[in-house]
Amino acid sequence: DLPFLKAHWPEGVGKDAYRWINDSIRQASVDKAEIQLNVSAKDLRLPELPKKAVNVVLHIHDAVIDYTKGFPAAKQASGRVYFEGQSLRAEIDEVAMLSSTRLQPTQSQPKATVKIPDLMQDNIKILIDVPLRAGLSDVLSFMQATPYKLPPSLPLSAAAAKGFLQGVLSMQVLDQISPLEDEVDFQLDGHLQ
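^ that's the sequence the OP posted. Answer follows.
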């Protein structure tokens, strides 16, 4: 379970990555953990093991993730989290946000992905790509819940919005040591119906 993972975080893995995981993953169940050792007899004589010596895969479900402050949480997330050397990669098969936003796989983006390319560096970079289908009321609610609010001059009402948006939400989060300095870039490539 999640408390076990937090309690047994490997020593030497980046403190900012641990902080992000500890602060952002509010809930998750781990169904299965797989550990793969890639060590030769020659590697055992080295002062430290190669970066790719240990790979871990966690099969998770029912995760609730506050991926960055000021944005709506991802809920009911299920998939796999890969610790590969000094990087983290997650493949998410299911996720829900707000009231009607769901994962909508495409041929080019069959799963949602989360990547932390370097767990060891300070101020970690988090790359998120989510193929989704969202009701327009969710899109407007999402925008109003973020620091990037729609201007008041646009008279749009989430309650009155009809239709949906389908596309890929891509985010790059630079998670600073001070959360007040986090940088978030996001792009939504999609179409309205």
